[in-house]
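Before surveying the methods themselves, we first show a specimen of the format, giving the amino acid sequence and backbone structure tokens:

:::
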Amino acid sequence: MGMTELNSQSSPEVKARILVVEDDRTFGEAVRKLLCQEGYGVTVASDFRLALEILEGDQPVDLLLADIVMPDSVNGIALSRMARLRRRDLKVLYMTGYNIPGADTQALGPILRKPIDDRTLLDEVGRLLAA
């Protein structure tokens, strides 16, 4: 229920595979469509449990695009730490619509502020995947 996938993810033309973790279905779907139009294979998970199921499976994931503030007890930062225990080479990009008081944003890496401009999202995703 809380997961949507691009059916052609196994296509050889896919630039990279991105797992988007976003509890807002409308926003998650908009991000999925934008990234798919640019040639990325995208799976959207609506919560951390679904995201962990994907990360524990065999599906390749090159980039985790995670909302920091989630409705469950595990936020995007904690999710990324759990994810990197399973996939050490996983690249992570955060997004949020909130100020994160006390968070060491330098240590976290790139954080995109919602609302996110399409070009900014695509540029940052491309930059991280190329690094």
User: Anything to note?
Assistant: Residues 3-130 form a domain with the Rossmann fold fold (CATH 3.40.50.2300).
